[in-house]
Design goal:
heterodimer; A: alpha+beta; six-stranded mixed sheet; B: alpha+beta; 30% helix; ExoRNase_PH_dom2_sf (chain B); PNPase/RNase_PH_dom_sf (chain B); Exosome_comp_Rrp42_subfam (chain B); RNA-binding (chain B); Protein ECERIFERUM 7 (chain B)
Chain lengths: 238, 471
């Protein structure tokens, strides 16, 4: 299958190899939660919610000098046609957890537990990236103290071209798939996952492309957060 | 999250600070360089139907044990004929299962795998399956109906840190030694599937295109200090971990990193280091596999001539780094043993004679002969079932910093290994020195050739039989 048309250079969904997907974010979608957000990347739709720090339920897991971050990732049954393995879900939960733990200032909330819930409503590739972006917005909405915004996106290498933002069809091609999550302003990589095979130099190119994509998403997230703050200001009558 | 039980080991603040400060000064507490692996031992075992007394399975399993420093992982590969997945009708399947026994670490829960167990399984799975290391299409028997399903079981026996690398090496080693029975289509109308017994037709190995080797980096500090192959204590202190799976061709097969942020330039440097390490480990695995297959063909040859022959099985020790014990150390041990009283050595000496071991014994104690005329051998020949611990020898073995423990690895298979009887058991000493955690690493004493015994003569086959009859 030709993932990049040789004549026009367009991909299967009409994008160019370096084009980002259409991103849309909304804050405060779950009224009951302390922080929530809806994040869309192309056709992938993810909703995330977080509650304020609570007492650790399982005392054996309590950490005395920092907060315990727990993340629950689930895919709605209607989100995709194919069955997903249970282990994949556990691994993604773990990965999101570790990524968010790196950006929240956990040492300010010792002996407490932070629960992040992420639900995939529509899956069209890049679900874990969308989840991390949604989680960032959620934590910002709930006013958690954070080091920086974490954004994530994926890139691949098909038909000898580095492609940014893989959708489901490109992901199923069993080609290389690099998912990167960065701390935007600090320019540090927190999440890096890769599957299939790539030579080192091509891997570096693909990783750099993904990092650029992440920075673009970070720019958008900042705008959304600023808008939200202005809205809150006007509601308060400031 | 892993359950933390009441008796789980917790690190003290002092120890944590000590390790952190040492790493900031570019020192590791076990005196390794930042990019040095601990000594690695790979043992192969192959279970064959004809060598097992009671066997209810007709399967030829491949297994391996890897000892990376204190970490001990065992891997076992089995195969089964199943129906293929609907979207891939002409490919076999490969699945990885992990078993984290609380024996290895009280923090592990028995039964359901915890998060880290799943992560480890998925990293090994990504490296092996998604990179195309094992050829899946060759496992197809009948398109759309029957394919071979390969199952790799990873058992963690001892958690000494860096389980991912050890488990990966174990999985690779066991896949290399695994043989599946040959099956052909036959019968009246060529539609009947015949699975040939391993006695009739030689079982086939898997087609493995490349060996993806996992190299784990531990991150400390602000994300600027990286070390390879973290030990258990370093893992408790580390800020995060990054695992890169590469093969010796310079292809990156898998990367897994989540947690503390590191800059992309550090990642690229780690990739370069990983390329070197992966090539090293690949050559070690291949070398060990080559020695093992030589041993296997030797056994096969012998079994044709002597139907009751029990195969020689030795631990193929492939260690990094290789350190030669110098003459002075050998002399010291010799002198020490010479000074020991004879009855201490002779208490439980075997009635049957000792089997002459190969030509590579380094030090022979010409002065000392036990009562039966059993000659003493150098510490290179350990009895696997020690009956007596000599405390003074334990102390001296500490000085020599790590004598090889070899034949203990033999416990994998039920075949009788050729034992070397020596009046003085040194194995206990070696294991106690291991348990005491000497600061020095497990320096190996010689290259692997030391364990290949000299070609057997008719006498040796006869001798083994005698021992059996007496029992």
């Amino acid at each position: 299958m030709e993932y990049v048309d040789s004549l026009t250079g367009f991909r299967l969904d009409g994008r160019r190899p370096n084009d980002i997907r259409q991103i849309r974010a909304e804050i405060g979608v779950v009224a009951k939660a302390d922080g929530s957000a809806l994040f869309e990347m192309g056709n992938t739709k993810v909703i995330a919610a977080v509650y304020r720090p609570t007492e650790v339920q399982n005392k054996g897991q309590q950490i005395n000098n920092q907060a315990l971050v727990r993340c629950e990732y689930s895919m709605a049954n209607f989100s995709t046609r194919d069955l997903q393995e249970d282990q994949r879900g556990t691994e993604i939960s773990l990965v999101i957890c570790q990524t968010m733990e790196a950006c929240i200032l956990v040492h300010l909330m010792p002996c407490s537990q932070i629960d992040i819930f992420v639900q995939v409503l529509q899956a069209d590739g890049e679900t874990r990236s969308a989840c991390i972006n949604a989680a960032t917005l959620t934590l910002a909405d709930a006013c958690f103290p954070m080091r920086d915004i974490v954004t994530s996106c994926s890139a691949g290498y098909l038909s000898s071209t580095p492609l940014l933002h893989l959708n489901y069809v490109e992901d199923s091609a069993r080609g290389p798939d690099v998912t990167v999550g960065i701390l935007a302003k600090m320019d540090k990589v927190t999440l890096l996952q890769m599957g299939s095979k790539l030579p080192i130099d091509i891997f570096e190119n693909v990783m750099q492309l993904a990092i650029e994509g992440c920075k673009a998403i970070a720019q958008y997230i900042r705008e959304v957060l600023l808008e939200n703050t202005k809205l809150l200001e006007s509601r308060k009558g400031l | 999250m892993e359950q933390r039980l009441a008796n789980t080991w917790q690190m003290t603040v002092n120890e944590r600070k000590f390790i952190e400060m040492a790493l900031a000064a570019d020192l590791r507490v076990d005196d390794r360089g930042p990019f040095d692996y601990r000594p690695c031992t790979i043992t192969f075992g192959r279970h064959k139907l004809k060598y097992l007394q009671f066997s209810f399975t007709n399967r030829v399993g491949g297994s391996s044990e890897v000892q990376l420093g204190e970490t001990h992982v065992m891997s076992y590969v089995t195969s089964q004929l199943v129906q293929p997945y609907r979207d891939r009708p002409n490919e076999g399947t490969l699945s990885i299962f992990t078993e984290f026994s609380p024996m290895a670490d009280p923090a592990f829960e028995a039964g359901r795998p915890g998060e880290f167990a799943i992560e480890l399984g998925r990293i090994v799975d990504r490296g092996l399956r998604e990179s195309g290391a094992v050829d899946m299409e060759s496992l197809c028997v009948v398109v759309g109906k029957l394919v071979w399903s390969i199952r790799v079981d990873l058992h963690i026996l001892d958690n000494g840190g860096n389980l991912i690398d050890a488990a990966n090496i174990a999985a690779l080693a066991s896949l290399l030694t695994f043989r599946r029975p040959e099956c052909t289509l036959g019968g009246d109308d060529n539609h009947e599937l015949i699975i040939h017994d391993i006695e009739d037709r030689e079982p086939l190995p898997l087609i493995i295109h490349h060996l993806p080797v996992a190299v784990t980096f531990a991150v400390f500090g602000e994300g600027n200090i990286m070390v390879i192959d973290p030990s258990y204590k370093e893992e408790a202190v580390m800020g995060g971990r990054m695992t890169i799976t590469m093969n010796s061709n310079g292809d990156i097969c898998a990367v897994q990193k989540a947690g503390i942020g590191i800059s992309s330039s550090v990642i690229i440097r780690c990739l370069e280091i990983c390329a070197v390490k992966a090539a090293e480990i690949t050559s070690k695995i291949n070398h060990a596999n080559l020695l093992d297959s030589q041993m296997e063909s030797f056994n096969d040859g012998r079994s044709i001539q002597y139907p009751n022959f029990h195969p020689v099985d030795v631990a193929i020790q492939d260690n990094l780094p290789d350190v030669i014990m110098n003459k002075k150390q050998i002399e010291n041990l010799t002198g020490h043993l010479a000074a020991l009283p004879l009855d201490a050595l002779d208490r439980n000496s075997n009635k049957s004679g000792a089997v002459v071991v190969g030509t590579n014994t380094r030090a022979k104690f010409e002065n000392n002969q036990a009562r039966d005329g059993v000659p003493f051998y150098s510490p290179s020949n350990w009895d696997p079932y020690p009956r007596k611990l000599c405390s003074c020898l334990a102390r001296s073995s500490l000085k020599l910093s790590g004598l090889p423990e070899d034949v203990e690895e033999d416990k994998v298979n039920t075949t009788q290994s050729v034992k070397v009887e020596c009046g003085l058991e040194h194995t206990k000493g070696a294991s106690s020195s291991r348990a005491l955690e000497t600061a020095s690493e497990y320096t190996t004493v010689e290259a692997t050739s030391q364990y290949i015994k000299a070609p057997k003569t008719l006498k040796d086959a006869v001798k083994i039989q005698n021992r059996k009859m007496r029992k």
